[in-house]
Design a protein that fits this description.
Length: 356
């Protein structure tokens, strides 16, 4: 049931190709293989089963998944196909589900495992989770609608940007990968995260013909790789800062929740940073509701600065910061604001200020 639920996440929704909404079930030897694809992502999961007669069938993914979830208490399920239907028998139910044409189901690319690169699944997932929200949605520039993976010294680096903000997460690896950099479509990266999220194993990555294959825990998944060049993002990371504030993450997250109530339709927040006046304020204002000023305890240094940011862009980063305290560095008016966890150099987040 777990395998069907995972495969259903990949099944397509294409009215011109109804078979993409199905799961391909193949019984062979001592294995049941479940496949699904939306032509961008493909998944194949192998399960040990008792096979009485070999064969294959395609079943609507949503129907099969919902049906099996309703049978969660059943210990044994028998599947068989007859007259373009899938017959499902348990100790308490007998059901038939109409099938789709198996011969129309697309082939999922089989990428060889030679020259593969491995790392723990949880490290790969944490890398995607830390940055994927910063990628553009529906951008005309595919490289901005992607999660970039690149190799930098002893780290595998995950980066995403929509040109208004940027997130970078570094994962330490024992062995250098066999690629310099690659771009995974953001929507695919999110699905990969959901599919492997509960797998506790090493993940093997292989690349071939603009496709990446990921293998772990009996799951084989392929994704299209974007053919493009990711922006040279290191050029925009400020090396010097005009002022800095160190705050408790709990304090600023709490303040932002209050400020959101009063923010305008542009999600605008104003930061007032005054090391001289020993003051760090967040102001929000909405003509139809009212306004709010929140003073946050902070260790401040540098020069006074006032600028505005998009509330959502600023807030999104805090789930990726593990540290209890956050350093917020201001490079100057019109320049990026940089957020980092105190004592943690593996995650960095940039957000551009809004024009006044």
């Amino acid at each position: 049931m777990d395998a069907v639920s995972r495969a259903e996440k990949v099944a397509g929704r294409n009215p011109t190709l109804p078979v993409l909404a199905g799961l391909y079930l193949e019984a062979k030897g001592t294995t049941l293989t479940i496949r699904a694809t939306n032509l961008d992502l493909g998944i194949s999961i192998s399960l040990p089963v008792k096979v009485f007669e070999e064969g294959s069938v395609v079943v609507p993914a949503q129907i099969l998944s919902a049906f099996l979830n309703s049978l969660s208490k059943e210990k044994s399920i028998t599947l068989s196909s007859k007259d373009q239907t899938l017959v499902v028998n348990t100790s308490s139910t007998h059901s038939t589900i109409k099938t789709l044409p198996a011969e129309e189901f697309p082939i999922i690319p089989e990428i060889k495992e030679h020259d593969s690169f491995s790392l723990p699944v949880k490290d790969f997932i944490s890398g995607i989770r830390a940055v994927s929200y910063a990628a553009a949605v529906g951008s005309i520039k595919p490289e901005l609608s992607s999660v970039c993976m690149l190799h930098d010294a002893e780290y595998l680096v995950f980066v995403a940007t929509d040109s208004f903000r940027l997130a970078e997460k570094k994962i330490k690896v024992k062995k250098a990968p066999h690629f310099n950099s690659l771009l995974i479509p953001q929507k695919n990266a999110v699905e990969i995260m959901r599919i492997f999220d509960t797998v506790d194993d090493d993940l093997s990555l292989s690349i071939e013909d603009n496709q990446i294959a990921l293998r772990a825990g009996g799951i084989y998944l392929t994704s299209r790789i974007i053919d493009g060049t990711f922006p040279d993002y290191k050029q925009i990371i400020p090396k010097e800062f005009m002022s800095k504030a160190v705050v408790l993450k709990h304090d600023i997250v709490s303040s932002l929740k209050t400020s959101l109530i009063f923010s305008d339709s542009f999600n605008q927040l104003k930061f007032v940073v005054s090391p001289k006046g020993k003051k760090f304020e967040i102001e929000s204002k909405n003509q139809n509701i009212g306004e709010n000023t929140h003073i946050i305890p902070a260790a401040l240094e540098g020069k006074d600065i006032t600028l505005s940011v998009n509330h959502r862009y600023f807030t999104d980063s805090f789930n990726s910061i593990a540290a209890d305290s956050v350093t917020i560095s201001f490079a100057g008016e019109g320049r990026p604001i940089v957020l980092e966890g105190v004592g943690d150099k593996t995650f960095k987040y940039l957000v551009m200020p809004m024009n006044r």
